[in-house]
Each structure stands twice: as structure tokens, then as C-alpha cells.
Amino acid sequence: MKIIALVENTVGNEKCTAEHGLSLYIETEKHKLLLDTGQTDAVVKNAEVLNIDLSAVDTVILSHGHYDHSGGILPFSELNHTAKIIMQKKAAEPHYNGERYIGIDTDILKLPDVQLVDGDMRLDDELFLFSGVTGRRCYPAGNRKLSCIKNGEKVCDDFCHEQCLVITQNGKRWLLSGCAHNGILNILDRYKELFASYPDFVITGFHMMKREGEHTEEEKAVIIQTAQELSLLDTVFYSGHCTGIPAFEMMKQIMGDKLIALHSGKTVI
Q: Which strand ranges, in their side-by-side order, compose the sheet holding 100-101?
């Protein structure tokens, strides 16, 4: 299996573009797929630099309905007219950060191969999608600013539009999430309900980025507790994007070699 961070916030290959967004290119025995597509056409430009043929991609998984994960879908669709584009039904609904719209471009919904799903879905013996995360342990504080529209009113986003991808390959399982808005510990709880174990590897943002000022003591406590619990698992975590450098460094001190940074253009495995 091959996984490349095609788009990420930080540069790993100086010829690649970095932006606030995430896209992972994945090759399994049966598939060539994308998890998310970043914010712009950087996904296309970086693929060209890395000699990745996006026209051969058969599946695109959208982890949740935000612009920095879906913005590359339309540029991608100009190169690839056959790939399935799979998202939760609620990912197509409006989402906001304060007054700013951060949802997907609604033109995406006009594409012929978009597939809206509601809940869990098994694609085949390699790929499985799950949602339905309801726990709230160590819930990311940044979610408090995020909202969606329900019954015509703007309310706090409950992230029922978030889905995770599980890849089974050579007896190992990979859990991939975009931002882990529901909280990585809660996502892992849901994973364990489904698989009665923990994944061997996880690739995800932790949504702990702080755009202004330093982390509060409350936020630091959540970051530290999350890292402490993750460090107890026999799982290797790859993270970046919305984790934020200060939070990543705090977690790295606790998790050591179990936490590895993502960068645009770098191969994960």
C-alpha cells in the first residue's frame, strides 16, 4: 500500500504547494483513491509534480463538508470523469465559522458521480466508511465556533456529516479521518465498537489549531489528556493540518515515536 500526503499545511517536498487543507493519495491492491482534496487546485498541481495520475483514481472520499477538504473536487473532476465521489448526505448542507461560509461548493453536487450516503457503508473487503460518532470526551474547543443550518436555524455543528475511512490491507487496518472534529478518542471508541480492537495506524488532524493567541489551560488539558490516552495504544498516528504546531509539539513530547508529522508531497508509507 502507498499513502502520500498530496496536500497539507506544511511543505515536505519543496516543489509541492502547501495550503490550509488536506488531501491523501492512497494506492491499495484494488484501488487508487483520494481522501479529501484540499482547498484549491493544489491537489492537481502537486499530483503533477509527484507523477501521480489523478485520471486513474477510482474513488474520492470526502471526510466532512468543509471547503478546505472539498475545494479540489471540481479541479479534480476536470481530469477525472469516472471516479465515485462519496460523502455523507449532511456534508452537502451549509456550514459556517461564525458568519463565514465554510461549506462545500454546491456545484460539486451537480457532478454525475457524487454519491450521498447516510451512515456506515462497506465498499468492499478493503474499504469501510463509518460515521455515527456521538461521544464527547476531549472534544475539540475549536468546534464551538462552527455551526450548521437545521430547520432553517443556525445551530452548533454536531458533525454528523463527518465520516472516517478504514482500509484493511495485509492483515493491518488503517483509520483515516480529515479533522477528527468529533474528537479522536470518540472516533476510536466508535471504531472499537465496530472492530473490537484498535487500528494499527491512524492518519488524522486533531482539530486543536489555535489561530489567535496561546492555548488556554483548559485547551492544554484536553491536548495533554488526548496524547496520554493515545500513547497507551499500540497504534502509530500521523497528524498535521488542523492539529496546529504548538499542539503537535505538546503531543509529540508525550507520544514520542507514536506521533509522526504530515507534510505536502511526503510519502507516509
A: 100-101, 95-97, 146-150, 153-156
